[in-house]
Amino acid sequence: MSTESHIIAERKRKFEEWRKLGFDYASKFERTHTSGEAKAVVEKKEPRDIAVILKKPASGVALCGRIMNLRDMGKLAFLRIRDGEGDFQICLAKDILGEDYKMFLRILDLGDFCGFEGEFFRTKHGEPTLLAVKVIPLAKTLRPLPEKFHGLTDREQCYRQRYLDMIANPETFRRFQVRSNVVREIRKFLEKESFQEIETRTLQPQAGGAMARVFETHHNDFDHKFVLRIALELDLKMAVGGGMERVFEIGKCFRNEGSDPSHLQEFTMLEWYAAYRDMAWNMELTENLMRTVLQNVLGTTEIRILDKNEKPVQVDFGKKFHRERFPDLLKKFAKVDMFLISRGDLEKEALKWDMKKSEVKKASTGTLLDHIYKKSARPNLIEPTFVMDYPSELKPLARPREDGTAEVFQLLVAGWEIVNSYGELVDPQIQRKLFEEQSAARAAGDEETMENDEEFLTAMEHGFPPMTGFGMGIDRFVTLITEQSNLRDTILFPLLKPERSH
User: Which residue among 63, 149, 415, 483 is least crowded, i.e. fewest CB within 10 A of its CB?
Assistant: First the structure.
Protein backbone atom coordinates (compact mmCIF):
# COMPACT_ATOMS: atom_id res chain seq x y z
CA MET A 1 0.00 0.00 0.00
CA SER A 2 1.38 3.45 -0.96
CA THR A 3 1.91 6.13 1.67
CA GLU A 4 -1.02 8.14 0.30
CA SER A 5 -3.28 5.08 0.27
CA HIS A 6 -2.32 4.39 3.88
CA ILE A 7 -3.15 7.99 4.85
CA ILE A 8 -6.53 7.80 3.11
CA ALA A 9 -7.36 4.51 4.84
CA GLU A 10 -6.39 5.96 8.23
CA ARG A 11 -8.51 9.07 7.67
CA LYS A 12 -11.49 6.97 6.65
CA ARG A 13 -11.08 5.11 9.93
CA LYS A 14 -11.03 8.39 11.82
CA PHE A 15 -14.19 9.46 10.06
CA GLU A 16 -15.91 6.37 11.38
CA GLU A 17 -14.91 7.61 14.84
CA TRP A 18 -16.60 10.91 13.97
CA ARG A 19 -19.82 9.07 13.25
CA LYS A 20 -19.69 7.10 16.47
CA LEU A 21 -19.34 10.42 18.31
CA GLY A 22 -22.34 11.85 16.49
CA PHE A 23 -20.49 13.93 13.85
CA ASP A 24 -20.87 13.67 10.09
CA TYR A 25 -20.36 15.86 7.03
CA ALA A 26 -22.23 18.91 8.28
CA SER A 27 -24.86 20.76 6.28
CA LYS A 28 -24.05 24.17 7.81
CA PHE A 29 -22.32 26.03 10.64
CA GLU A 30 -23.53 29.31 12.12
CA ARG A 31 -20.42 31.40 12.59
CA THR A 32 -20.53 34.80 14.20
CA HIS A 33 -17.30 36.15 12.67
CA THR A 34 -14.96 35.60 9.75
CA SER A 35 -11.25 35.58 10.53
CA GLY A 36 -10.94 39.20 9.41
CA GLU A 37 -13.89 40.31 11.53
CA ALA A 38 -12.54 38.40 14.53
CA LYS A 39 -9.16 40.14 14.29
CA ALA A 40 -10.88 43.52 14.08
CA VAL A 41 -12.90 42.76 17.22
CA VAL A 42 -9.83 41.74 19.20
CA GLU A 43 -7.97 44.84 18.07
CA LYS A 44 -10.77 47.20 19.15
CA LYS A 45 -11.18 46.06 22.72
CA GLU A 46 -9.12 44.47 25.46
CA PRO A 47 -10.21 40.83 25.86
CA ARG A 48 -10.21 39.04 29.17
CA ASP A 49 -6.98 37.44 30.37
CA ILE A 50 -6.57 33.75 29.55
CA ALA A 51 -6.24 32.83 33.23
CA VAL A 52 -9.61 34.45 33.93
CA ILE A 53 -11.25 32.77 30.94
CA LEU A 54 -9.99 29.34 32.02
CA LYS A 55 -11.77 29.73 35.38
CA LYS A 56 -15.10 30.68 33.79
CA PRO A 57 -15.10 30.30 29.98
CA ALA A 58 -17.76 32.01 27.85
CA SER A 59 -19.23 30.89 24.52
CA GLY A 60 -20.27 34.02 22.67
CA VAL A 61 -18.42 33.73 19.36
CA ALA A 62 -18.07 31.06 16.67
CA LEU A 63 -15.49 30.64 13.90
CA CYS A 64 -14.95 27.94 11.30
CA GLY A 65 -12.47 27.02 8.60
CA ARG A 66 -9.92 24.53 7.34
CA ILE A 67 -7.28 23.35 9.84
CA MET A 68 -3.89 24.37 8.43
CA ASN A 69 -1.64 23.77 11.43
CA LEU A 70 -1.82 21.99 14.80
CA ARG A 71 0.61 22.12 17.75
CA ASP A 72 -0.03 19.92 20.77
CA MET A 73 1.65 21.34 23.91
CA GLY A 74 0.34 18.91 26.47
CA LYS A 75 -2.56 20.65 28.20
CA LEU A 76 -2.96 23.23 25.45
CA ALA A 77 -3.10 22.85 21.67
CA PHE A 78 -2.99 25.64 19.11
CA LEU A 79 -4.64 25.24 15.74
CA ARG A 80 -4.58 27.62 12.80
CA ILE A 81 -7.73 27.65 10.70
CA ARG A 82 -8.24 29.36 7.34
CA ASP A 83 -11.36 30.87 5.81
CA GLY A 84 -11.91 33.18 2.84
CA GLU A 85 -10.38 36.16 4.65
CA GLY A 86 -7.25 34.56 6.09
CA ASP A 87 -5.99 32.59 9.10
CA PHE A 88 -7.00 32.68 12.74
CA GLN A 89 -5.61 30.90 15.78
CA ILE A 90 -7.70 28.52 17.90
CA CYS A 91 -6.70 27.29 21.35
CA LEU A 92 -7.92 23.99 22.80
CA ALA A 93 -7.47 23.56 26.56
CA LYS A 94 -7.65 20.28 28.44
CA ASP A 95 -8.99 22.11 31.50
CA ILE A 96 -12.03 23.22 29.47
CA LEU A 97 -12.64 20.28 27.12
CA GLY A 98 -11.81 17.60 29.68
CA GLU A 99 -11.65 14.04 28.28
CA ASP A 100 -12.69 15.31 24.84
CA TYR A 101 -9.38 17.21 24.54
CA LYS A 102 -7.25 14.20 23.55
CA MET A 103 -10.10 12.73 21.52
CA PHE A 104 -10.33 15.81 19.27
CA LEU A 105 -6.58 15.91 18.79
CA ARG A 106 -6.74 12.25 17.74
CA ILE A 107 -9.60 12.48 15.23
CA LEU A 108 -8.81 15.87 13.64
CA ASP A 109 -6.31 16.08 10.77
CA LEU A 110 -4.72 18.90 8.82
CA GLY A 111 -7.13 19.89 6.08
CA ASP A 112 -10.30 19.04 8.04
CA PHE A 113 -13.01 21.66 8.27
CA CYS A 114 -14.06 22.41 11.82
CA GLY A 115 -16.15 24.90 13.78
CA PHE A 116 -15.27 26.34 17.20
CA GLU A 117 -17.30 28.23 19.78
CA GLY A 118 -15.75 30.13 22.68
CA GLU A 119 -14.20 33.45 23.65
CA PHE A 120 -11.54 35.70 22.14
CA PHE A 121 -8.27 36.46 23.94
CA ARG A 122 -4.72 37.46 23.16
CA THR A 123 -1.74 35.20 23.78
CA LYS A 124 1.29 36.55 25.63
CA HIS A 125 2.75 37.29 22.17
CA GLY A 126 -0.32 39.36 21.28
CA GLU A 127 -1.83 36.84 18.85
CA PRO A 128 -5.65 37.15 18.48
CA THR A 129 -7.00 33.72 19.46
CA LEU A 130 -10.27 31.96 20.18
CA LEU A 131 -10.30 29.74 23.27
CA ALA A 132 -12.70 26.95 22.32
CA VAL A 133 -15.33 25.68 24.70
CA LYS A 134 -16.97 23.66 21.96
CA VAL A 135 -15.49 21.84 18.95
CA ILE A 136 -17.71 20.80 16.02
CA PRO A 137 -16.05 18.74 13.24
CA LEU A 138 -17.65 19.74 9.91
CA ALA A 139 -16.00 17.86 7.01
CA LYS A 140 -13.25 15.23 6.85
CA THR A 141 -10.37 15.60 4.41
CA LEU A 142 -9.35 12.17 3.14
CA ARG A 143 -6.34 13.16 1.03
CA PRO A 144 -3.33 14.96 2.53
CA LEU A 145 -2.66 18.57 1.60
CA PRO A 146 0.71 19.62 0.10
CA GLU A 147 3.47 19.66 2.71
CA LYS A 148 3.81 22.93 4.56
CA PHE A 149 7.48 23.56 3.77
CA HIS A 150 7.56 22.18 0.24
CA GLY A 151 4.20 23.54 -0.87
CA LEU A 152 2.95 23.01 -4.40
CA THR A 153 5.58 24.17 -6.89
CA ASP A 154 5.00 22.07 -10.01
CA ARG A 155 3.44 24.53 -12.50
CA GLU A 156 1.31 21.99 -14.35
CA GLN A 157 -0.02 20.50 -11.11
CA CYS A 158 -0.92 24.02 -9.99
CA TYR A 159 -3.05 24.37 -13.14
CA ARG A 160 -4.62 20.91 -12.89
CA GLN A 161 -5.35 21.12 -9.17
CA ARG A 162 -5.87 24.82 -8.68
CA TYR A 163 -7.72 24.22 -5.40
CA LEU A 164 -4.48 22.81 -3.94
CA ASP A 165 -2.49 25.69 -5.42
CA MET A 166 -4.78 28.16 -3.61
CA ILE A 167 -4.48 26.25 -0.34
CA ALA A 168 -0.71 25.83 -0.49
CA ASN A 169 0.19 29.21 -2.00
CA PRO A 170 -1.58 32.21 -0.41
CA GLU A 171 -0.31 34.49 -3.19
CA THR A 172 -2.31 32.41 -5.70
CA PHE A 173 -5.44 32.81 -3.58
CA ARG A 174 -4.89 36.58 -3.41
CA ARG A 175 -4.37 36.74 -7.19
CA PHE A 176 -7.80 35.32 -7.83
CA GLN A 177 -9.30 37.69 -5.31
CA VAL A 178 -7.72 40.50 -7.35
CA ARG A 179 -9.29 39.09 -10.52
CA SER A 180 -12.72 38.95 -8.92
CA ASN A 181 -12.33 42.52 -7.64
CA VAL A 182 -11.21 43.75 -11.08
CA VAL A 183 -14.37 42.37 -12.71
CA ARG A 184 -16.51 43.88 -9.95
CA GLU A 185 -14.93 47.32 -10.33
CA ILE A 186 -15.27 47.23 -14.13
CA ARG A 187 -18.99 46.55 -13.78
CA LYS A 188 -19.40 49.35 -11.23
CA PHE A 189 -17.51 51.82 -13.44
CA LEU A 190 -19.49 51.03 -16.60
CA GLU A 191 -22.84 51.03 -14.84
CA LYS A 192 -22.00 54.46 -13.41
CA GLU A 193 -21.35 55.58 -17.01
CA SER A 194 -24.89 54.43 -17.97
CA PHE A 195 -23.85 51.17 -19.68
CA GLN A 196 -26.21 48.20 -19.55
CA GLU A 197 -24.80 44.69 -19.19
CA ILE A 198 -26.27 42.21 -21.68
CA GLU A 199 -25.59 38.63 -22.78
CA THR A 200 -25.12 37.53 -26.36
CA ARG A 201 -24.82 34.21 -28.19
CA THR A 202 -21.97 31.80 -27.52
CA LEU A 203 -23.06 29.48 -30.34
CA GLN A 204 -23.19 31.36 -33.64
CA PRO A 205 -23.95 30.48 -37.28
CA GLN A 206 -20.56 31.92 -38.27
CA ALA A 207 -17.68 33.65 -36.56
CA GLY A 208 -17.38 37.41 -36.65
CA GLY A 209 -15.83 40.41 -34.95
CA ALA A 210 -12.24 39.20 -35.20
CA MET A 211 -9.81 37.26 -37.35
CA ALA A 212 -9.34 33.76 -35.96
CA ARG A 213 -9.91 30.07 -36.54
CA VAL A 214 -13.01 28.64 -34.92
CA PHE A 215 -14.21 25.72 -32.82
CA GLU A 216 -17.06 23.93 -34.56
CA THR A 217 -19.90 21.92 -33.08
CA HIS A 218 -22.97 20.15 -34.46
CA HIS A 219 -26.42 21.17 -33.27
CA ASN A 220 -28.39 17.92 -33.23
CA ASP A 221 -31.86 19.43 -33.09
CA PHE A 222 -31.22 21.83 -36.00
CA ASP A 223 -28.94 19.32 -37.77
CA HIS A 224 -26.61 22.22 -38.46
CA LYS A 225 -23.00 23.15 -37.80
CA PHE A 226 -22.39 26.12 -35.50
CA VAL A 227 -19.22 27.77 -34.17
CA LEU A 228 -18.19 29.06 -30.75
CA ARG A 229 -17.89 32.84 -30.85
CA ILE A 230 -14.47 34.39 -31.35
CA ALA A 231 -15.58 37.87 -30.23
CA LEU A 232 -18.57 39.67 -28.71
CA GLU A 233 -18.57 42.56 -31.16
CA LEU A 234 -21.23 41.95 -33.79
CA ASP A 235 -24.08 40.98 -31.48
CA LEU A 236 -23.33 43.96 -29.21
CA LYS A 237 -23.38 46.35 -32.18
CA MET A 238 -26.71 44.91 -33.33
CA ALA A 239 -28.05 45.56 -29.82
CA VAL A 240 -26.97 49.20 -30.17
CA GLY A 241 -28.76 49.27 -33.53
CA GLY A 242 -31.84 48.04 -31.68
CA GLY A 243 -31.80 51.08 -29.39
CA MET A 244 -29.60 50.06 -26.44
CA GLU A 245 -27.26 53.02 -26.66
CA ARG A 246 -24.54 51.85 -24.24
CA VAL A 247 -23.98 48.13 -23.75
CA PHE A 248 -21.24 45.90 -22.39
CA GLU A 249 -20.61 42.21 -21.92
CA ILE A 250 -18.02 40.19 -20.01
CA GLY A 251 -18.00 36.77 -21.61
CA LYS A 252 -16.02 33.78 -22.82
CA CYS A 253 -14.60 33.69 -26.35
CA PHE A 254 -12.93 30.79 -28.15
CA ARG A 255 -10.25 30.76 -30.85
CA ASN A 256 -8.97 27.46 -32.21
CA GLU A 257 -5.36 28.52 -32.58
CA GLY A 258 -1.99 28.00 -30.95
CA SER A 259 -1.39 28.95 -27.34
CA ASP A 260 1.50 30.73 -25.68
CA PRO A 261 1.92 32.69 -22.43
CA SER A 262 -0.16 35.60 -23.79
CA HIS A 263 -2.70 33.66 -25.91
CA LEU A 264 -5.14 30.91 -25.00
CA GLN A 265 -7.93 29.23 -26.96
CA GLU A 266 -10.52 30.03 -24.26
CA PHE A 267 -10.44 33.48 -22.73
CA THR A 268 -12.65 36.16 -21.15
CA MET A 269 -13.38 39.39 -22.99
CA LEU A 270 -14.85 42.69 -21.93
CA GLU A 271 -16.43 44.61 -24.81
CA TRP A 272 -18.54 47.76 -24.73
CA TYR A 273 -20.14 50.01 -27.35
CA ALA A 274 -21.47 53.55 -26.95
CA ALA A 275 -23.69 55.36 -29.44
CA TYR A 276 -23.03 58.98 -30.45
CA ARG A 277 -19.50 58.98 -29.02
CA ASP A 278 -16.15 59.07 -30.83
CA MET A 279 -12.64 57.76 -30.34
CA ALA A 280 -11.40 60.80 -28.40
CA TRP A 281 -14.15 60.22 -25.80
CA ASN A 282 -13.27 56.52 -25.84
CA MET A 283 -9.64 57.26 -24.97
CA GLU A 284 -10.63 59.44 -22.03
CA LEU A 285 -13.02 56.79 -20.75
CA THR A 286 -10.35 54.10 -21.16
CA GLU A 287 -7.83 56.10 -19.12
CA ASN A 288 -10.41 56.70 -16.39
CA LEU A 289 -11.43 53.04 -16.36
CA MET A 290 -7.83 51.87 -15.93
CA ARG A 291 -7.08 54.35 -13.17
CA THR A 292 -10.32 53.70 -11.29
CA VAL A 293 -9.97 49.92 -11.38
CA LEU A 294 -6.31 49.97 -10.28
CA GLN A 295 -6.91 52.50 -7.52
CA ASN A 296 -9.93 50.64 -6.14
CA VAL A 297 -8.40 47.15 -6.40
CA LEU A 298 -4.69 47.71 -5.70
CA GLY A 299 -4.82 51.07 -3.92
CA THR A 300 -2.44 52.70 -6.41
CA THR A 301 -2.00 53.54 -10.09
CA GLU A 302 1.77 52.96 -9.92
CA ILE A 303 2.40 49.25 -10.35
CA ARG A 304 5.21 46.87 -11.18
CA ILE A 305 4.62 44.58 -14.14
CA LEU A 306 6.63 42.13 -16.24
CA ASP A 307 7.59 43.09 -19.78
CA LYS A 308 7.69 40.63 -22.68
CA ASN A 309 11.14 39.45 -21.51
CA GLU A 310 9.72 38.85 -18.00
CA LYS A 311 11.75 41.70 -16.55
CA PRO A 312 10.00 43.81 -13.87
CA VAL A 313 9.28 47.40 -14.88
CA GLN A 314 7.48 50.20 -13.04
CA VAL A 315 4.63 51.93 -14.87
CA ASP A 316 2.28 54.70 -13.82
CA PHE A 317 -1.31 54.61 -15.07
CA GLY A 318 -1.92 57.86 -13.22
CA LYS A 319 -0.08 59.92 -15.85
CA LYS A 320 -1.59 60.94 -19.17
CA PHE A 321 -1.19 58.00 -21.54
CA HIS A 322 1.26 58.40 -24.41
CA ARG A 323 -0.11 58.63 -27.97
CA GLU A 324 1.67 57.23 -31.02
CA ARG A 325 0.68 56.53 -34.63
CA PHE A 326 1.24 53.09 -36.13
CA PRO A 327 2.94 54.53 -39.28
CA ASP A 328 5.30 56.64 -37.15
CA LEU A 329 6.32 53.64 -35.01
CA LEU A 330 7.09 51.61 -38.14
CA LYS A 331 9.33 54.40 -39.39
CA LYS A 332 11.05 54.83 -36.03
CA PHE A 333 11.76 51.19 -35.18
CA ALA A 334 11.83 49.40 -38.56
CA LYS A 335 12.66 52.24 -41.00
CA VAL A 336 9.57 51.27 -43.01
CA ASP A 337 7.28 53.86 -44.62
CA MET A 338 3.99 52.01 -44.96
CA PHE A 339 2.66 54.57 -47.47
CA LEU A 340 5.58 54.35 -49.91
CA ILE A 341 7.12 50.87 -49.64
CA SER A 342 6.54 48.47 -52.53
CA ARG A 343 5.06 45.02 -52.07
CA GLY A 344 8.37 43.39 -52.99
CA ASP A 345 10.38 45.45 -50.52
CA LEU A 346 7.74 44.88 -47.83
CA GLU A 347 8.08 41.11 -48.25
CA LYS A 348 11.87 41.41 -47.87
CA GLU A 349 11.42 43.44 -44.70
CA ALA A 350 9.03 40.87 -43.25
CA LEU A 351 11.62 38.15 -43.84
CA LYS A 352 14.21 40.28 -42.01
CA TRP A 353 11.83 40.34 -39.04
CA ASP A 354 11.60 36.55 -38.91
CA MET A 355 8.37 35.96 -40.80
CA LYS A 356 8.32 32.51 -42.37
CA LYS A 357 8.93 32.49 -46.11
CA SER A 358 5.92 30.22 -46.65
CA GLU A 359 3.67 32.82 -44.98
CA VAL A 360 5.02 35.97 -46.64
CA LYS A 361 3.61 35.40 -50.15
CA LYS A 362 0.05 34.64 -49.05
CA ALA A 363 -0.09 37.36 -46.36
CA SER A 364 -1.93 40.59 -47.07
CA THR A 365 -0.06 43.88 -47.00
CA GLY A 366 -1.68 44.73 -43.68
CA THR A 367 -0.61 41.40 -42.18
CA LEU A 368 3.00 42.02 -43.28
CA LEU A 369 3.02 45.51 -41.77
CA ASP A 370 1.50 44.21 -38.56
CA HIS A 371 4.14 41.48 -38.26
CA ILE A 372 6.97 44.00 -38.64
CA TYR A 373 5.35 46.36 -36.13
CA LYS A 374 4.90 43.60 -33.54
CA LYS A 375 8.52 42.51 -33.88
CA SER A 376 10.13 45.95 -34.01
CA ALA A 377 8.05 48.57 -32.22
CA ARG A 378 5.66 46.90 -29.81
CA PRO A 379 8.27 45.46 -27.39
CA ASN A 380 9.53 49.02 -26.81
CA LEU A 381 6.21 50.43 -25.63
CA ILE A 382 6.53 50.19 -21.85
CA GLU A 383 4.47 53.03 -20.39
CA PRO A 384 0.72 52.98 -21.17
CA THR A 385 0.52 54.04 -24.81
CA PHE A 386 -2.35 54.53 -27.24
CA VAL A 387 -1.23 53.35 -30.68
CA MET A 388 -3.51 54.81 -33.36
CA ASP A 389 -4.11 54.61 -37.10
CA TYR A 390 -3.54 50.94 -37.93
CA PRO A 391 -3.81 49.81 -41.58
CA SER A 392 -7.51 49.69 -42.46
CA GLU A 393 -6.97 46.30 -44.09
CA LEU A 394 -6.43 44.88 -40.57
CA LYS A 395 -9.55 46.53 -39.15
CA PRO A 396 -12.50 45.88 -41.50
CA LEU A 397 -15.05 46.76 -38.78
CA ALA A 398 -13.51 50.19 -38.04
CA ARG A 399 -14.12 53.49 -39.79
CA PRO A 400 -11.55 53.74 -42.66
CA ARG A 401 -9.62 56.89 -43.57
CA GLU A 402 -8.55 58.04 -47.02
CA ASP A 403 -4.84 57.48 -46.28
CA GLY A 404 -5.34 53.73 -45.82
CA THR A 405 -5.46 53.79 -42.02
CA ALA A 406 -8.46 53.07 -39.81
CA GLU A 407 -9.95 55.00 -36.91
CA VAL A 408 -8.48 52.64 -34.32
CA PHE A 409 -6.38 52.68 -31.19
CA GLN A 410 -4.82 49.95 -29.10
CA LEU A 411 -3.56 50.39 -25.55
CA LEU A 412 -0.07 48.91 -25.16
CA VAL A 413 1.67 48.41 -21.82
CA ALA A 414 5.10 46.76 -21.52
CA GLY A 415 4.70 45.26 -24.99
CA TRP A 416 1.30 43.75 -24.13
CA GLU A 417 -1.79 44.68 -26.12
CA ILE A 418 -4.41 45.43 -23.46
CA VAL A 419 -7.21 47.24 -25.28
CA ASN A 420 -8.44 47.32 -28.88
CA SER A 421 -10.85 50.16 -29.70
CA TYR A 422 -12.55 51.54 -32.81
CA GLY A 423 -14.39 54.46 -34.18
CA GLU A 424 -16.97 52.01 -35.46
CA LEU A 425 -17.87 51.71 -39.13
CA VAL A 426 -21.64 52.16 -39.55
CA ASP A 427 -21.87 52.64 -43.35
CA PRO A 428 -23.29 49.35 -44.70
CA GLN A 429 -22.05 49.94 -48.26
CA ILE A 430 -18.44 50.41 -47.19
CA GLN A 431 -18.79 47.50 -44.74
CA ARG A 432 -19.98 45.20 -47.53
CA LYS A 433 -17.07 46.23 -49.75
CA LEU A 434 -14.55 45.58 -46.94
CA PHE A 435 -16.09 42.18 -46.19
CA GLU A 436 -15.79 41.27 -49.89
CA GLU A 437 -12.12 42.27 -49.86
CA GLN A 438 -11.59 40.15 -46.74
CA SER A 439 -13.26 37.16 -48.40
CA ALA A 440 -11.02 37.55 -51.46
CA ALA A 441 -7.91 37.64 -49.26
CA ARG A 442 -9.11 34.50 -47.45
CA ALA A 443 -9.64 32.74 -50.78
CA ALA A 444 -6.08 33.70 -51.73
CA GLY A 445 -4.73 31.93 -48.65
CA ASP A 446 -4.62 34.56 -45.88
CA GLU A 447 -6.42 32.83 -43.00
CA GLU A 448 -6.20 35.92 -40.77
CA THR A 449 -9.17 37.58 -42.47
CA MET A 450 -12.91 37.82 -41.81
CA GLU A 451 -15.76 36.16 -43.63
CA ASN A 452 -18.69 38.04 -45.10
CA ASP A 453 -21.57 38.21 -42.61
CA GLU A 454 -24.96 38.80 -44.21
CA GLU A 455 -26.83 38.76 -40.90
CA PHE A 456 -24.69 41.62 -39.60
CA LEU A 457 -24.90 43.54 -42.88
CA THR A 458 -28.70 43.24 -42.87
CA ALA A 459 -28.79 44.70 -39.37
CA MET A 460 -26.45 47.52 -40.40
CA GLU A 461 -28.63 48.27 -43.46
CA HIS A 462 -31.51 48.89 -41.06
CA GLY A 463 -29.36 51.65 -39.57
CA PHE A 464 -26.70 51.96 -36.86
CA PRO A 465 -26.04 55.20 -34.97
CA PRO A 466 -22.50 56.64 -34.80
CA MET A 467 -20.64 54.68 -32.14
CA THR A 468 -17.30 53.77 -30.64
CA GLY A 469 -16.30 50.45 -29.09
CA PHE A 470 -13.76 48.88 -26.75
CA GLY A 471 -12.41 45.36 -26.26
CA MET A 472 -10.10 44.07 -23.51
CA GLY A 473 -8.97 40.61 -22.46
CA ILE A 474 -9.71 40.27 -18.75
CA ASP A 475 -7.16 37.46 -18.39
CA ARG A 476 -4.42 39.53 -19.98
CA PHE A 477 -5.15 42.63 -17.92
CA VAL A 478 -5.12 40.70 -14.64
CA THR A 479 -1.94 38.86 -15.68
CA LEU A 480 -0.27 42.20 -16.28
CA ILE A 481 -1.30 43.94 -13.04
CA THR A 482 -0.48 40.91 -10.84
CA GLU A 483 3.06 40.70 -12.24
CA GLN A 484 2.60 37.35 -13.96
CA SER A 485 3.98 36.22 -17.31
CA ASN A 486 1.46 33.52 -18.26
CA LEU A 487 -2.31 33.89 -18.71
CA ARG A 488 -2.86 30.48 -17.10
CA ASP A 489 -1.72 31.95 -13.78
CA THR A 490 -4.80 34.17 -13.68
CA ILE A 491 -7.35 31.67 -15.01
CA LEU A 492 -8.82 29.59 -12.23
CA PHE A 493 -9.10 26.34 -14.19
CA PRO A 494 -7.21 26.69 -17.49
CA LEU A 495 -7.95 24.12 -20.18
CA LEU A 496 -5.23 21.45 -20.34
CA LYS A 497 -4.78 18.30 -22.34
CA PRO A 498 -6.14 15.41 -20.20
CA GLU A 499 -3.55 13.33 -18.44
CA ARG A 500 -3.17 9.76 -19.64
CA SER A 501 -5.00 7.27 -17.43
CA HIS A 502 -2.81 4.57 -15.94
Answer: 149
